[in-house]
Fold:
Amino acid sequence: MEKLALVVVVSACKLKPYFQSHPIEVLTVTPLCTILHGPCHSRRLAKWAVELSEYDIEYKSRISAKAQVLADFLTKLPANKAILGDGNRT
Structure:
Protein backbone atom coordinates (compact mmCIF):
# COMPACT_ATOMS: atom_id res chain seq x y z
CA MET A 1 0.00 0.00 0.00
CA GLU A 2 2.89 2.34 0.69
CA LYS A 3 4.10 1.85 -2.88
CA LEU A 4 0.77 3.08 -4.21
CA ALA A 5 0.92 6.15 -2.00
CA LEU A 6 4.52 6.74 -3.08
CA VAL A 7 3.45 6.72 -6.74
CA VAL A 8 0.99 9.54 -6.06
CA VAL A 9 3.59 11.51 -4.07
CA VAL A 10 6.27 11.16 -6.77
CA SER A 11 3.76 12.09 -9.47
CA ALA A 12 2.74 15.16 -7.50
CA CYS A 13 6.38 16.22 -7.16
CA LYS A 14 7.21 15.73 -10.83
CA LEU A 15 3.97 17.30 -12.09
CA LYS A 16 3.64 19.99 -9.43
CA PRO A 17 2.40 22.81 -11.72
CA TYR A 18 -0.28 20.53 -13.15
CA PHE A 19 -1.35 19.29 -9.70
CA GLN A 20 -1.57 22.88 -8.43
CA SER A 21 -3.71 24.18 -11.28
CA HIS A 22 -6.09 21.26 -11.93
CA PRO A 23 -8.27 18.95 -9.83
CA ILE A 24 -6.80 15.45 -9.91
CA GLU A 25 -8.73 12.17 -9.93
CA VAL A 26 -6.87 9.05 -8.86
CA LEU A 27 -8.60 5.88 -10.04
CA THR A 28 -7.63 2.85 -8.00
CA VAL A 29 -8.94 -0.52 -6.89
CA THR A 30 -7.38 -0.11 -3.44
CA PRO A 31 -8.73 2.11 -0.64
CA LEU A 32 -5.92 4.65 -1.02
CA CYS A 33 -7.91 7.52 0.49
CA THR A 34 -8.63 5.62 3.72
CA ILE A 35 -5.01 4.52 3.93
CA LEU A 36 -3.68 8.07 3.62
CA HIS A 37 -6.28 9.67 5.86
CA GLY A 38 -6.89 6.82 8.29
CA PRO A 39 -5.95 7.01 11.97
CA CYS A 40 -3.65 3.98 12.02
CA HIS A 41 -0.86 4.59 9.57
CA SER A 42 2.88 4.95 9.70
CA ARG A 43 4.77 8.20 10.08
CA ARG A 44 5.80 7.98 6.43
CA LEU A 45 2.17 7.75 5.28
CA ALA A 46 1.25 10.64 7.58
CA LYS A 47 3.99 12.77 6.02
CA TRP A 48 2.81 11.90 2.51
CA ALA A 49 -0.81 12.63 3.45
CA VAL A 50 0.23 16.11 4.61
CA GLU A 51 2.20 16.68 1.37
CA LEU A 52 -0.76 15.59 -0.77
CA SER A 53 -3.31 17.60 1.21
CA GLU A 54 -2.24 20.81 -0.53
CA TYR A 55 -3.58 19.48 -3.85
CA ASP A 56 -7.18 18.95 -4.93
CA ILE A 57 -7.01 15.14 -5.23
CA GLU A 58 -10.11 12.99 -5.38
CA TYR A 59 -9.70 9.24 -4.96
CA LYS A 60 -12.23 7.16 -6.89
CA SER A 61 -12.66 3.43 -7.14
CA ARG A 62 -12.00 2.04 -10.58
CA ILE A 63 -14.60 -0.32 -11.96
CA SER A 64 -12.99 -3.06 -13.99
CA ALA A 65 -14.21 -3.58 -17.49
CA LYS A 66 -13.77 -6.98 -19.12
CA ALA A 67 -10.78 -5.85 -21.15
CA GLN A 68 -9.21 -4.20 -18.13
CA VAL A 69 -9.36 -7.43 -16.11
CA LEU A 70 -7.15 -9.16 -18.65
CA ALA A 71 -4.71 -6.23 -18.70
CA ASP A 72 -4.53 -6.24 -14.89
CA PHE A 73 -3.88 -9.98 -14.90
CA LEU A 74 -1.04 -9.64 -17.42
CA THR A 75 0.65 -6.86 -15.46
CA LYS A 76 0.67 -8.97 -12.29
CA LEU A 77 1.81 -12.14 -14.06
CA PRO A 78 5.55 -12.74 -13.69
CA ALA A 79 7.52 -12.86 -16.91
CA ASN A 80 8.13 -16.48 -17.75
CA LYS A 81 9.73 -17.76 -20.93
CA ALA A 82 7.42 -20.77 -20.97
CA ILE A 83 4.39 -18.50 -21.08
CA LEU A 84 5.81 -15.83 -23.38
CA GLY A 85 7.59 -18.30 -25.61
CA ASP A 86 11.28 -18.08 -26.40
CA GLY A 87 11.00 -18.97 -30.09
CA ASN A 88 13.09 -22.15 -29.68
CA ARG A 89 10.54 -24.91 -29.90
CA THR A 90 11.78 -28.45 -30.26
